[in-house]
Specification:
Layout (H helix, E strand, L loop, with lengths): L1 H15 L15 H6 L5 H14 L9 H18 L7 H17 L6 H21 L7 H30 L1 H21 L1
Helix pairs in contact: 1-8, 3-4, 3-5, 3-7, 3-8, 4-6, 4-7, 5-6, 5-8, 7-8
Length: about 190
């Protein structure tokens, strides 16, 4: 029964997924407040950050913090590179592909070694950061927007890890994995809409 509920909720997320509005220019990140609100402006962000948090909790307790730290650190580097004009082709599709891959890794319980996981987190963070740096309006204050963006991103990563730890104990590992597969499907739907 729980598996069916989890699968139904995942399907619902896929059906209601719309285009990725977070990078569509519907708002200008000009300061801390708008930088903080930006990650909440699209389902792609929420799904991605929650997934990073869930993935981090897959590692032993003393090491889990390294995944979000590496991701956030390279997000900063990518953001600054993007803000200075370096753009990757089809950044939205590339960014979506990273979260799809991560959702599948979690859903199938693929266990990467710590040494393998850190560069993956770094790559995902760099791609994510470049996309946000490129989208920064010319009149924006990059530092305050970046600080706000990082604060919200960190919060969502922590929530993702907490939800997974709670959910694993309450609903079982497999149901949480099916839900993450649903998140990956949402990312597929968003990426296809781009």
């Amino acid at each position: 029964m729980r598996f069916k509920l989890s699968a139904a909720l995942s399907l619902l997320l896929v059906l209601v997924a719309g285009p990725a509005f977070a990078h569509s220019g519907h708002h200008a990140a000009t300061g801390f407040g708008t930088g903080f609100l930006h990650p909440f402006s699209g389902l792609d962000h929420v799904a991605a950050m929650v997934t990073i948090g869930i993935w981090a909790t897959q590692f032993e307790e003393k090491k889990w913090w390294g995944i979000p730290a590496m991701f956030l650190g390279l997000t900063v580097v990518g953001f600054m590179v993007g803000a200075h004009g370096f753009a990757l082709p089809r950044i939205e599709v590339l960014s979506g592909a990273t979260y799809i891959a991560l959702g599948v890794v979690i859903a199938v319980a693929l266990r990467l070694s710590w040494a393998s996981a850190l560069p993956v987190a770094a790559l995902f963070g760099a791609v994510h950061g470049v996309g946000h740096g490129v989208g920064l309006p010319a009149e924006a204050d990059p530092l305050s927007a970046l600080i706000g963006f990082l604060a919200a991103t960190t919060l969502m990563i922590i929530v993702g890890g907490g939800v997974f730890l709670f959910g694993r104990n309450r609903w079982g590992q497999r149901n949480v994995q099916v839900s993450v597969l649903g998140i990956a499907a949402v990312c597929v739907a968003i990426t296809a809409a781009i």
